[in-house]
Design goal:
2 domains, three-stranded mixed beta sheet, 6 helices, 37% helix, 11% strand, elongated
């Protein structure tokens, strides 16, 4: 991102556009310079707002266009209601933006990371069988395994880290937002919403 021009910069540029000659006074208090300064102040204000707009293009930092970002990604929604804190709403938005969808475990790991949940674990469960050394390398159940039925081939178990905390950020939090929030309803809802229709999703938490 380039550096924004100041009012002084714009006044100099405007002065350079005048026809050449000694008739134009250079004293700051002269009428000509005051006229140029008035225009320069507005150009500098617009320049600064353009720089702000570049910041608004990033949903992690957007403030003035945050609600437009939410609307573009179908938020607020069941998994991210409007009465959440600004911190939770931003986490939900970023998670929706970075989520690519898909049917791989890695896609759900990326979704969770976008919501602030790193190092989640996904266990793909399977039916208990007795075959050994199949062409695909799949071996059957061993002593101590759960006796799972065929539905377990469509079951994943997601293990989340306990104790994820979101804190309010100065200049982003709104009046009424808590200074700190705990809870994992957001990630559970988001994972279930993203799950394919055939997938049975179990959500649990790692022991500390």
């Amino acid at each position: 991102m380039g550096v924004s021009l100041t009012a002084q910069d714009y006044r100099g540029l405007l002065f350079s556009l005048l026809p050449p000659g000694m008739v134009w006074p250079v004293e700051p208090e002269s009428n000509v310079q005051r006229l140029l300064d008035g225009s320069a102040q507005e150009f500098a204000r617009v320049d600064a707002r353009v720089a702000d707009l570049l910041v608004e293009a990033d949903p992690r930092r957007a403030l003035y266009l945050f609600e437009e970002w939410e609307a573009s990604y179908g938020l607020p929604g069941d998994c991210a209601p409007a009465d959440q804190s600004m911190s939770d709403r931003r986490a939900a938005l970023v998670g929706r933006v970075v989520a690519q969808g898909g049917m791989r475990a890695a896609d759900y790991v990326e979704l969770a990371a976008g919501l602030g949940y790193d190092n989640i674990e996904i266990i793909e469960l399977r039916e208990a069988t007795v075959e050994v050394n199949t062409p695909t390398g799949h071996t059957g159940a061993v002593i101590g395994d759960d006796i799972n039925g065929s539905d377990w081939d469509s079951t994943w178990r997601v293990l989340l880290p306990n104790g994820v905390v979101r804190e309010s950020v100065v200049d982003e939090a709104q009046i009424g937002d808590p200074l700190r929030t705990w809870g994992d309803e957001l990630i559970e809802c988001a994972l279930r919403e993203a799950a394919a229709s055939w997938l049975i999703l179990q959500v649990g938490y790692k022991e500390e």
